[in-house]
Amino acid sequence: MSEAAAVETHAPVVIDRTEPQLTPGNTGKLGMWMFLVGDAMTFGVAIAAYGALRIGNVNWPRPSDILGIDTTAFMTFVLICSSLTMVKALSGIQHGNVAQLKKYLALTVLGGLTFLGLQAYEWNMLINYEGLSIKTSLFSATFFALTGFHGMHVFGGVCYNSTILANAMRGHWPGANAKIVEIAGLYWHFVDLVWILIFTFVYLI
Amino acid sequence: MAHEATAHQADAPAPIAMDHPEPNYVAVFIYLTVLTVLELVVYYMHLPTFVMISLLVALAWAKAVLVAMYFMHLALEKRTLAVIALTPVTIVTFLCFMLLPDLTARIWAKTQMHQQVTAEAHAPAEH
């Protein structure tokens, strides 16, 4: 009995099927998703903390009294447009059209830079003209922390996309270029998605 | 250009290399724009606070889901990936519930303090 068990234990393990992959043929995509899940938790916790500080706080100002809603709505629109150009860039390279990739990736970078420019303008107005700083109140502390953290993500995305664009311009193409653009796109759309939530929770409500 | 064309031919993936069919990106973009305009309409309508917050949160989540499903291709990937993507949402929802006792206690304490102050203010008039 025990001999049989020992023989069984030492028998070679035969795997008769391959493990089904979550993202077949593109492990990097799964890697990016794992990163985004972690990043989403950071943003989720930050937004929850913001809510916890705000609920029941009678001294909390009405956001529209301090923040420019229309400018920020335009910033939201800019990010949505840049998400569209990002998927158009991906679509281009998936069809082997490098010119389309370059054109739309450049527009995506431009969208990101426009967003950052508008955010810099907004922060400048708040800090230098409204006299707000991160130490002024709980409102300003959470506002600068949330929008600043998101702004850094946008900056990261602009650098990320610019690198791919620079490689495309120089004609350096690794074999898996469409995958690289798709993975960068995941990050960029995530940044857009988070802004959609921040726009609602921080500016509108 | 010649170098680029060669690189293109040698390395660019063929159209069949796509993992899934392409969604109608322009339609998704139009939906997102319309929902953003709707958010502004709701915001400027000056509805009762609870109604306004409910509508705005619903619209924001609708936009977020559209981005995740079609721009990030979750609708076209394996379902397990969508489950993984939902994990942070679930955990943060739990976190919000965990914060509730603290928030309720804070609001309750404030209400009590307010009642006490009101009672003290009225006390001399009653005697």
Word description of this protein:
The complex is a heterodimer of chains A (205) and B (127). By secondary structure, chain A is mostly helical. Chain A has a single domain (26-53, 68-204), classed as Four Helix Bundle (Hemerythrin (Met), subunit A) (Up-down Bundle), CATH 1.20.120. Chain A has seven helices and no strands. Chain A has helices at residues 2-10, 27-54, 63-66, 69-94, 98-129, 138-170, 177-204. In chain A, helix 4 (69-94) packs antiparallel against helix 5 (98-129) and helix 4 packs antiparallel against helix 7. Chain A is flat, with a radius of gyration of 23 Å. Chain B has 127 residues and is mostly helical. Chain B folds into two domains: 19-77; 79-127. In chain B, 80% of the residues lie in helices and 0% in strands. Chain B is built from four helices and no strands. Chain B has helices at 2-11, 25-44, 49-71, 79-126. In chain B, helix 2 (25-44) runs antiparallel to helix 3. Chain B is elongated, with a radius of gyration of 26 Å.
Present the secondary structure layout.
The complex is a heterodimer of chains A (205) and B (127).
Chain A: H1 2-10, H2 27-54, H3 63-66, H4 69-94, H5 98-129, H6 138-170, H7 177-204
Helix pairs in contact in A: 2-6, 2-7, 4-5, 4-7, 5-6, 6-7
Chain B: H1 2-11, H2 25-44, H3 49-71, H4 79-126
Helix pairs in contact in B: 2-3
- Give the radius of gyration of chain B: 26 Å
N-end to C-end Cα span of chain B = 96 Å
**Anisotropy-based shape of chain A:** flat
Average pLDDT of chain B works out at: 82
Whole-number total of structural domains of chain B? 2
In percent, how much strand structure appears in the residues of chain B? under 5%
- State the share of residues found in helices of chain B, binned by percent: over 70%
How many domains make up the coordinates of chain A?
1
**What is the count of helical runs of chain B?**
4
Decide which structural class fits the backbone of chain B.
mainly alpha
Largest interface: A-B, 62 and 56 residues
Quaternary structure: heterodimer
